[in-house]
Automatic annotation (TrEMBL):
PROSITE patterns: 4FE4S_FER_1 (PS00198), 4FE4S_FER_2 (PS51379). Residues 113-145, 149-179 form the 4Fe-4S ferredoxin-type domain. GO terms for molecular function: DNA-directed RNA polymerase activity; protein dimerization activity. This is 4Fe-4S ferredoxin-type domain-containing protein. One of its GO terms (biological process) is DNA-templated transcription. Pfam families: RNA_pol_A_bac, RNA_pol_L. One of its GO terms (cellular component) is DNA-directed RNA polymerase complex. Keywords: DNA-directed RNA polymerase, Transcription.
């Protein structure tokens, strides 16, 4: 039962922040009501001679919007004549309390690349363009043997600042830097919230924290010597 409960808890469920309250902030006082929890039921009996797989698609929700993000998440295998019956409750929660409430599967950022090619140095280059051959991401547009290399328009999406082009250019024509004020964020959602909501809500929470911090600073007595 514990393994089942764990598997069930980790199934990402589509979330509706507009119509549901956090249980601890709900008018029911945390007892659980239709404004703060959704019931998911499962009632499966294997009458066949083969083993069957119970998946997230077998969960029946009392709100058609609040359902697993995918119907194909395995829960358990049932052998002939076995059955699985339960009632589960899904509630809003915060990831700092438990990882099962995470709405983001993966997040990372990297610096925005700034790469300059000094065309004057390229003019006298006898190995056009050997530097671009070393770019494993193929981010250079190399024309004829006479034309100077250029970066493709969206090079920043894939450049990982490896500096291979810089090291391999015999004329020192390539400068690889990054912008201190620009970052490329990559966010992988687990499907429970749309991206727009994820970003908007994150900023709202961040702003609330800053306002709270400012408020606490106001009430502090600071002595400056
Ligand atoms: S970038 Fe470097 S290797 Fe490429 S053409 Fe210019 S000088 Fe030559
Ligand atoms: S820094 Fe690396 S990835 Fe970026 S353009 Fe140069 S060789 Fe390619
Ligand atoms: Zn409630």
């Amino acid at each position: 039962d514990e393994i089942l409960a764990h598997r069930l808890a980790m199934i990402p469920i589509v979330t509706d922040l507009k119509h549901y309250n956090f249980q601890q902030e709900c008018s029911c006082g945390g007892a659980g009501c239709s404004l703060c929890s959704v019931t998911l039921t499962c009632d499966i009996k294997n009458d066949t001679d083969e083993t069957i797989l119970v998946t997230s698609g077998d969960l029946i929700s009392n709100d058609p919007i609040i359902v697993p993000v995918s119907p194909n998440i395995p829960i358990v295998k049932l052998e002939h004549d076995s059955s699985l019956t339960f009632e589960a409750f899904t509630v809003l929660g915060r990831a700092k309390d438990h990882a099962k409430f995470q709405s983001v599967a993966n997040i990372g950022y990297r610096f925005y690349p700034k790469i300059e090619i000094d065309e004057r140095k390229c003019e006298k280059c006898t190995q056009k363009c050997i530097a671009s051959d070393y770019c494993s991401k193929k981010l250079f547009e190399v024309g004829t043997e006479k034309s100077n290399p250029k970066l493709i328009p969206d090079f920043w999406k894939n450049c990982d600042l490896c500096e291979a082009c810089f090291h391999e250019c015999p004329e020192g024509a390539i400068k690889v830097e990054w912008d201190d004020n620009k970052f490329i964020f990559s966010i992988e959602s687990d499907g429970v919230l749309p991206f727009g909501t994820l970003l908007k809500k994150s900023w709202e929470i961040f702003k609330e924290k800053i306002d709270d911090f400012k408020e606490q600073l106001k009430n502090l007595e600071i002595e400056i010597e």
